[in-house]
Structure formats: structure tokens, C-alpha cells
Amino acid sequence: MKRKNLILFLLFATILLFQSCEVQILDDSRILVKGNLVDSNNNPLPNIAVRCQSYGEILGETRSDANGQFQFTSLESENNYPLNIMINLKSSGYDYYVGGYNYYELTENPDYSAKKYFNDAYNRSNSSTYNLGQIQLNEAAHLTILFTNIPGDNNRVAYKLEFQSAVCAIDLNSNNTEDCLIADDYYNQLDINSTNFQTNLDSQLGTTVLLKYILNEQPEQTISIPLTNLENTYVFEY
Amino acid sequence: MFLNIRILLVALLISSATIAQETEGTESPETETQQQANGPGKNIGNIVIGPYFPIAFGDNFVNDGMDLKFGARLSFKVDTYKGIYIGPYFSFFNGHVTDRELLGNYSRTTNFTLGLVAGYEKHIDKFDISIGIGVGASSYSNDRQGDGFQDTATALWLNPEVSYRFSNYLGFYIAPEFRHDFMNIDVPAELKDTFNGVNYLNISVGLRINLGTAYKYL
């Protein structure tokens, strides 16, 4: 009997879990999303994906035209679901929303950075026009850092990376500028037993990555790594 | 939407009352026989049922962004006084979304319309010719990968109809329908021209069932 109750409980819990993930679409409502895309040299960016979505469910989408312009009609989710407008971001299933940043998103066109506009207000107005204006997508830059443990040295190093993410988040409910530095901080502890180690990150061309490290509990040191190429490599020996 | 439902309920009530009056008015067999022998008989009304071919036109979201498929139409017209009729009406049709940038990200819709028709009918030899207007609640039940949502409207239509009787109680009808759906979709100003309303010229053909003895003498 107890086993039967347990099975029933698990069944209902599963149903409730899936139920809670389904986005409810607002009846009798549409929104309009428009803007235009340029690169860092102010040239129009064609064929970039723009999507309106909520919890990974696409409510409307298009691609920028030859002039970099886009305009599309989207469905509207119920106001208790966040509304996100993703520029050059892959749809990534259920996006776990933490402070406007999503670890699961990657740029769709890897040559350019991406932006995520979000509106998680419970009282947002429906039937709105989201005119995003001119949006600049910088060229994306990739950095590979090789941590090389020199044989025979008994060192320990703790490090952290700070950089402009390839994905910037913009709150549609505030006038704050875009925030690209929220996350993508790494922290790792390497010691004598660590073998060679490699980490990769996606950032924006022309920006600088800060590698902050503490070697053997000495004061923190900072190395600036400018991203001057689309592909960059830095070797850190300890 | 609530207004539509109220209109519909009133319409159904009137229709039911009309039918009830017709039933209550049934005379004794002797009187009926006498009446039949003398001429006009009793015209209760007719039922028309058949496929329904929707054709949208103009600058609106259905015409610009959907591929419409046929549906069906059912109407019960109750004769009230000297050819004037009134009765309930139901139709449905399907549509596939072809322009998601214009409409939003969903794949298909089914339109249901439930309303009331009223008009005038004239009988010429074996032809029954009528003109009527209708009003009702129109609902676009939209589907997107399992979940759905609705767009609603108030529908108003003009409905000429010609039918040919091949027996006393059965006929074939053809009915064009000029219809406008006043949409309730809440949109920003830039989209109002597209989502405010939809124009249709719908065609329906099918079977007409005549009710009552009057058709014997027409």
C-alpha cells in the first residue's frame, strides 16, 4: 500500500513539474519587436537570428534583412512568465533565470557577440512595441588559456577570470546600460598535482580579459590579456 | 467576449421559444388534414448542412498569413411569419499559418462561429431564395506544439442563399457569405490594420432539409 502511494505521489509530482514548465500564452494579444543590427564599424548585420521567447519556448522569430533591420510579431506570455528577446542566441530549452544571465546560451553566429533583453516584470504592459533601436554586436573573440605546471615546482595557484561576456544582458525595465560582466567568472585552485590545464572563453574583440591569481598565498596579481584577434591563446606557467 | 455570449444566449432563447410556439400550435389531425387539403400546409423551416470554403480578402492577418482549409456549416432557420426566419448558426474551418513573422509563432488555427441568423425567404417554383444576416461569437483556437491559445471576435455576416428542391423535403443549396470578424486582439498601434478585423467571402454548398408540410404545396 505504501509503495502504491509512493508511486502515485511521484506520478503527481512529475505531472506538476511538467505543468509548471509550460508557458501560458496570453489570449487575444500580440506584441511587435523591431530594431536594426550593426557591427562595431556601424555596418549593417544581415541574417542574424532574433527571437522572442519565454522559458525556452519561442513566441516569435525572424532574421535581420540585408540592411540589418528586423521586425516581427510575437505572441505574449502570461505576465507571470519572463519575456526575453534574444539577439544571436540559440534557443536552449528551459533557461534558468538567475539575475538576467543564462549559462546555457551560446551565440548562434559565432563570429559575433549576442544580447539578451529581458522583461520579468509581473505588471508589464501587454500589446507593446519593443523598439530596440540600433543594436551593436561586436565581433566575438575566443581565448584559450593554458595553465602549465612546471615540473619540480611545488606551487599552488588560485585564479579568477574577469571579462566581457559574449552575451550581454539588458533589463527592459530599467535605463541601465547593458551588463556583460555579470558572470563567467571562474575560480579554480591548482596545485603541484595538477597537470596541464586549459580553459576557454568567449568574449568580444577589442576588450581585455583580466587574469587574477594568487600564487602561494602571496598578494593577488593581475594580468591583462587584450583580445586583439578572433582567436587568442595565452600560456600561464606556475 | 461576454457580450457575444449574451447575444448568443438571447438568440438561442428566441429560437427555442419560436420552435416551442410552433410545436404548441400543432393542431388536431382532423384540422391538419383539412389544412393540407386546402393548401399551404405548415412551414416549420429548414436545416442546411454542408462543407464551407472560407476565402479571406483584404489586408489582414488571415489573408496575409494563413492558408485556409475547408470546414463545415450548419444552420437551422425557423420560419416565423410570412417568410421571415430566425435561427441558430454554426460553422467551422481550419487554417495553417504560413507567415509566422506576421502572426507569431504558432502553426495552425481552427475557427468556430456560433451565432444567430435572421432573414427573409421567397419560394419560386422549385427554388427557395433567401437573404439573411447573422451575428455571432467567433473563436480562433490556435495551436502551437501541443499548447494553445485563443483569439476571439464578433462576427457579422450577410448570407444570400439559393436552393433547389429535388423532393418535397430535400434540396441542394449554394450560399455565398460576406462576413467580417471584428477581432478582439490587443495589439500595438502599428499592427492594428492587420489585426483589427478579417473580411471573408465564404462559399457553402450542401443539403437542405425542409421541415413541415407546406413544401408539398409550393
Order of helices and strands of chain A: HEEEEEEEEEEEEEEE
Question: How many strand elements of chain A?
Answer: 15
CATH domain class of chain B: Mainly Beta
Question: What is the CATH-assigned architecture of chain B?
Answer: Beta Barrel
| Unreliable stretches covering 5 or more consecutive residues of chain A | 15-20, 93-104
Q: Roughly what fraction of the amino acids of chain A lie in strands?
A: 35-45%
Got a strand count of chain B?
9
From the N-terminal CA to the C-terminal CA of chain A, the straight-line distance is 62 Å
Gross geometry of chain B: elongated
Radius of gyration of chain B: 20 Å
Q: What distance separates the N and C termini of chain B?
A: 42 Å
Outline the secondary-structure elements.
The complex is a heterodimer of chains A (238) and B (218).
Chain A: H1 2-21, E1 31-38, E2 49-54, E3 57-63, E4 69-74, E5 83-87, E6 114-119, E7 129-136, E8 140-148, E9 157-162, E10 167-171, E11 186-190, E12 197-204, E13 208-215, E14 221-226, E15 231-237
Parallel strand pairs in A: 1-7, 6-10, 8-15
Antiparallel strand pairs in A: 1-4, 2-3, 2-5, 5-6, 8-12, 9-11, 9-13, 13-14
Chain B: H1 2-24, H2 29-38, E1 43-53, E2 56-57, H3 61-65, E3 66-81, E4 84-97, H4 100-103, E5 108-124, E6 127-144, E7 147-165, E8 170-183, H5 192-195, E9 197-212
Polypeptide structure, described:
- By secondary structure, chain A is mainly β.
- Chain A is built from 1 helix and 15 strands, in the order αβββββββββββββββ.
- In chain A, strands 3-2-5-6-10 form a 5-stranded mixed sheet, with no helix packed on it.
- Chain B has an 8-stranded antiparallel barrel with strand order 1-3-4-5-6-7-8-9.
- Chain B is elongated and about 60 Å long.
- The model of chain B is unreliable at 1-5 and 7-38 (pLDDT under 50).
- Classes of the chains: A mainly beta (238), B alpha+beta (218).
- The interface between A and B is medium-sized, with 25 and 23 residues.
